[in-house]
């Protein structure tokens, strides 16, 4: 493979433009890894706007939308946690066991 001189001045034609701090939205085809310096206190912050994983359509009522399964090790939540939607049959399980509701319903058979 011989080196070929670019046909246009950079970054057109031969080099992808870098991510920058400008106000326009940007896309990137390849993966993006941030925060690889272990001395950093924060790796990725999104102070404004919505974050979507696995979808291009974030739910406007929530800061984070995840389409697909979620694995969280050591997750902590503050406030109410909703499982499913009204009218669905989802159950909350901890270590494979159903969790009783505050009113005493939904308990496992041999509770």
Strand line-up of the largest beta sheet = 1-2
Shape verdict: elongated
Low-confidence stretches: none
SSE series: EEEE
How many helical stretches?
A: 0
Average pLDDT for all residues: 82
Q: Using the CA coordinates, give the radius of gyration.
A: 23 Å
Strand content: 5-15%
Structural class, please?
Answer: little secondary structure
For the sheet with most strands, the description reads:
2 strands, parallel
Q: Span between N and C termini?
A: 71 Å
Q: Kindly state the percentage of residues in helix.
A: under 10%
Per DSSP E runs of 2 or more residues, the count of β-strands stands at: 4
Describe this structure in words.
The chain is mostly loops and 111 residues long. Helix content is 0%, strand content 9%. The protein is built from no helices and 4 strands. It has strands spanning 51-53, 64-66, 93-94, 97-98. Strands 1-2 form a two-stranded parallel sheet. The protein starts with 50 loop residues before the first strand and ends in a 13-residue tail after the last strand.
Short key terms for the protein model shown above:
single chain, 111 residues, two-stranded parallel ribbon, two-stranded antiparallel ribbon
List the helices and strands and how they pair.
Elements: E1 51-53, E2 64-66, E3 93-94, E4 97-98
Parallel strand pairs: 1-2
Antiparallel strand pairs: 3-4
